[in-house]
Amino acid sequence: MPSEGPSAANLIIAGAAPVFVLLILVELVVGLLRRRNTYRANDAISSISLGITSQLMGVFTAVVGLTGYALVSGHLALTTLPMEAWWAWALTFVIYDFCYYWQHRMSHEVNLLWATHVVHHSSEEYNLSTALRQPATGFIAGWMFYLPLAVLGVPPLMLAVTGTLNLLYQFWIHTRQIGRMGRFDRWFASPSNHRVHHGQNDHCLDKNYGGVFMAWDHLFGTFQEERDDEEIRYGIRGALGSWNPVWGNLHVFTALWRDMRLADSWKDKLGVWFRGPAWRPEAAKRLAPKPDYDPHHFEPFDPPAPAARQAYAVAQLGLVLIPAVHFLLHQARASRLEALGYALFMIASMCCITGILEGRRAFERLELVRLVLLAVVPQVLGRWFLGLELSGAGR
Fold this sequence. Notes:
Blueprint: H1 8-34, H2 41-76, H3 86-109, H4 111-121, H5 128-131, H6 147-151, H7 156-169, H8 183-187, H9 191-197, H10 215-220, H11 245-262, H12 266-274, H13 282-287, H14 307-330, H15 336-357, H16 361-381
Helix pairs in contact: 1-7, 1-14, 2-11, 2-14, 2-15, 3-4, 3-7, 4-11, 11-12, 14-15, 15-16
């Protein structure tokens, strides 16, 4: 059954989407004027498509975390914080960031969580579009780190708004156009110390986890200043090698599943999911060896694509972004089945767009099918998804 309306988080994200696009364009122009452009069309398209996919699927998966939070809140809450009190919001914001620090840190230290979080690190560029590169599988375990807030009596709506604001803050720190900021860098998440976090250099690994406050990194020994003597290389060790948003979400899960099947003991089979990303079972290393990582021969994934193809992909992604915002605002009035069909169609559209960028013939043929469906189906039905009437329909 449809719910009563869009969630507070959906409203905030939908409202912020045009601002994100505007700021991305501003950063692009600034980079071009400075002759320090940090954008590649293919990488940015991949980042934005992953962000859209995350928001679309979050409509259906958020219930997992919300249900778990409600259960703990209903049975274990020590009190209920007053939503009308400013101090309750301030306290929630600080404690949320502390929980975020540990959720973020464990997402780098536990394979099951890394399989989700790796999406955010898979961009080999670093710009505002990278901030949008969010996972669609965070519902698996990430929400558990915020259950202490349920025990403290933080209402679910306060949690949702605080979490969204924390995420929105982190948008602006994904840039190379802002340099160091003095003392601010030491105590708050900033472009400088977050660039370190996204680096795959040895000194960058597992550093600077704080979402807003860097006090947690100082307290637990994970703070690292940006260096002037070594250029940061962005991305992950073991490149994704694809722009596809579905594969971007699933590639590490696929690798872990393969290693689990190759492991020859139950201890190692469990270890695949709960040990660190650098660990593999001996049987998996023997039967499916991986080449050693060589930081001096890192080759970014950048398959050639004609300018016309890139322009087409940018235009089509823009046309997907509009119905994605429409979906976030209006999906609640439709059945879950219709909403899911709408979301999957948009995700399939982005798979076609990114497949075209990779020069894959199969996706070029699928794109033709998609365009035909876009032209024919709404005209036959007389409406767009979620009951949006077409101009002139029914006359």
